[in-house]
Amino acid sequence: MIFNYILKNGKLLYPEKTKTASIGIKDGKITLLSSLKGRQAEEFIDAEGCYLLPGLVDAHTHPVYADDLEHIACTAAFGGVTTMIHYLTVKSGQQPLQVCKNAISRGEKTSALDFAFHAALCDAERQAVHIPELIQSGISSFKMFTAYKKLNMMTDDYALAKAMDIIAAHKGMASVHAENGMVIDYLEEKLRASHKNMCSHFLTTSPSLLDREAIFRVLSIAALFGCPLFLPHVSSAKALDALKIARSEGIKVYTETCPHYLVFTWNELQEQCALGKIRPPVKTLEDREALWNALATGIIHTVGSDHAPKTKKITDDFDASPYGAPGVETILPLLWEFGVNKKRITPNKIVELTAENPAKIFGLYPAKGRLENGADADLVLFNPQRKWTISNKNQHSNAGYTLYEGRKCTGKVEKVFSRGRLIVDNDKYLGEPGRGRFLKTHIT
Ligand SMILES: [Zn+2]
After folding, report:
1. What's the DSSP call for residue 227?
2. Which residues, in sequence order, are CB contacts of 385 under 8 Å at separation 6+?
3. How far is the CA of 145 from the centre of ligand 1 (A)?
4. Residue 63, domain extent
């Protein structure tokens, strides 16, 4: 047999080990090779001194702002992400199944990377009846919001209970943006009325006590119905208090944090004013350190980007600016620089958090998430010695900025394969729009 590629002498990363081996790629699948004797390939790539990681599975992307389904695949690929689980918003009055079918067909025509969807239900009480048909068509996780009443997206406890009851009965998973939005709205109004600076008082309007309250409430309702729960963007130490109780009681909950909560404190990020306006907000030094600790202890299971590239300028009015920032391209370099290089986590932990765990949680494993015989050849060649500086000039999102401008990193993605096809070769993008496949998620 002649392989399409053989990547030789790389250090292969797994959650539990690192091993030196070679990888053969043929027809989009991986074969692990302990010896190269007699092996033939159309192309040999020497990975000496580099790590080979499974392609990242980013379970938190929004392909509806500056980067659409086609373009988000490009910026993701440069960051070593090869699978995305996008949030698909179903607004009040829309037909959930139709919205999903349209998005799947758009993705199959334009995405260079494999993708799945979470359905974000803005009117869960009325839309809950459609949950079974969505699960049947391969969308098994349902986002709801305990915030954003003014944006017409909030789910009250009645609707949350109804949706979780149905989700649990049909073997899906709830994914909840858990902050106490009503209290936050009140605090914002009060601050506005007193003409205080909304940017420097961002944390006054979003005290982490409210994270804890909302997470505890959502966990409790989920536990009542036996509904598996995914909590995206955990951002504070107080949120972790609620998660520790859940763990001690054996409640089934999976959690995610995002690189911005691990890199910044609000004191630092507020210099970027509107660009750093993200919900939940980036919090304090104590919160940041508690999150790093939670990665190490397993209270947090995944790191996702929450890539929501809104086109904003640093001079924009903070209060009038939308929430969100780009991030899918910087997950891996930031975790490496601030985690591995600063000795907070191991390289093995990175593949656990960004590939194996999200693939398992959403039922994409073992095709995705691990360098194993027969798995999809989604992989990243990462050079841990390469020094570079993050800048909007070398990033590929259409957002027009990166929150990490000027951050120096040691460690860079050099090559990325998606189902056996080389799609990133240093600065070159070779992705092919429409080659990506829609992946059905399964919750076990
Ligand atoms: Zn999000």
Report:
1. -
2. 49, 410, 411
3. 10
4. 55-361
